[in-house]
Amino acid sequence: MGPQTYEITFTGEAGTTLRAEFDDCEVTIGPGTTTLRADLPDQAALGGLVQRIIGLRLQLVCVLLVEPPAPHDLPRAATTVSAC
After folding, report:
1. Bridge partners (DSSP) listed for residue 60
2. Which of 33, 42, 73, 78 has the most CB atoms lying inside 10 A of its own CB?
3. Is 30 exposed, middle or buried (0-12, 13-18, 19+ CB in 10 A)?
């Protein structure tokens, strides 16, 4: 299995300094939450990213596995494999 895309949400709106901690992820700020989107090579990388979040004393809200792209190279679907 190749890399998979995950969206990980934690509470709080990350400021510039906190966003810099996740410069290897796409960061989206929502009302009261921050969501990281990352293409990760394996479960160990996912665990490492979750540990970084916990290590910064952030409250984890949700971890989603994003549906893989269609075989004919269409953009990634907005739907998810699991929901929080």
Report:
1. 10
2. 33
3. exposed
Report yes or no on whether pTM surpasses 0.85: no
Give the number of domains in the chain: 1
Q: Which CATH number goes with the domain that contains 60?
A: 3.30.70
State how far the Cα of 43 lies from the Cα of 47, in Å rounded to an integer. 6
Q: How far apart are CA 53 and CA 59, in angstroms?
A: 8
Amino acid found at 52: R
Q: How many residues does the chain have?
A: 84
Within-domain flag for 33: yes
Amino acid at 20: A
What 72-81 contacts at long range (C-beta under 8 Å, 24+ apart), as own/partner pairs, is 76/5, 80/7
Show pLDDT as tens, one digit a residue, over the chain (84 residues).
688 999 999 999 999 999 999 999 999 999 999 999 999 999 999 999 999 999 999 999 999 999 766 666 555 544 444 557
